[in-house]
Each structure stands twice: as structure tokens, then as C-alpha cells.
Amino acid sequence: MVRKSQVKDGRSAAMEPWLIFTSMDDFKPRQVMKLYSRRMQIEQNFRDEKSERFGFGLRASYSQGAGRLFVLSLLATLSSIVLWLIGFHAENKGIHLSYQANSIKSRRVISHLTLAENVLRHSPANII
């Protein structure tokens, strides 16, 4: 069992400790947390690809062929990379502060993808 307090760089914003159970005795708590964090990112990426509300809406394509699903997934991945780069650039320019609902400036509050989506929707000229 790994507790958040055992990992120095655990997210301080979380109110409750993470209780992660594992049978991998040869991994240190920090390694288990990194693996779990990576797993959460992968699941989030799948949600972004499939969801009509939060992502690219691959569910709505009703595609069943492996080749077509591969191409759609590749396009979604490439789009995610471009959006991430736009969001990263917007954050470096300080544009992210006008899209936050709070005044926290010490850490990222919205993801690069969400920031890119907002900037492209509301003020695409700010990216240049």
C-alpha cells in the first residue's frame, strides 16, 4: 500500500490521501505513483478521443473497421499534439491567466489542451 504522504512530490491540492494497492514489491512508492499517474493520463487520452462532449467524438463515427479506427485514432493523436503545443505556447505568453476561473498563478489550473481549445475558440489571433 502506498500513501500519498510517502511520496514527496504528491499533489498537495488533494484533500484525501491516495490509497493505491499493488502486488509489485520491487517498486518504490514513488515508482508506483508514477505508473498510476501515467495510467490515469492514458485513460484520459482515450476519453478525449472517444467522447463527443469532451473530445474528438470517435464514438459518433460508428466506424468498425480496424484500418479506419487506426486512421481516426492517429488523427486524434496528431490533433492532441498540435493542441498541446498551442496550449503550451499560450501559457508561455501568459494568455492562460485570462481563462482561469481563479487567481492561482503558481501552478497550472487548466490543461494545455483546454487552454488551446479556449484560445482557438475565443481569440485565435492571440496565438501568433
From TrEMBL:
Database matches in PANTHER family: TRANSPOSASE OF TN10
Taxon lineage: Bacteria, Pseudomonadati, Pseudomonadota, Gammaproteobacteria, Enterobacterales
Segments crossing the lipid bilayer: 69-90
Keyword Protein transport: no
GO biological process: DNA transposition
Record-level Gene Ontology MF annotations: DNA binding; transposase activity
Keywords: Membrane, Transmembrane, Transmembrane helix
UniProt xrefs under InterPro entries: RNaseH-like_sf (IPR012337), Transposase_11 (IPR002559)
Pfam entry (one): DDE_Tnp_1
Transposase IS4-like domain segment(s): 4-68
Protein name: Transposase IS4-like domain-containing protein
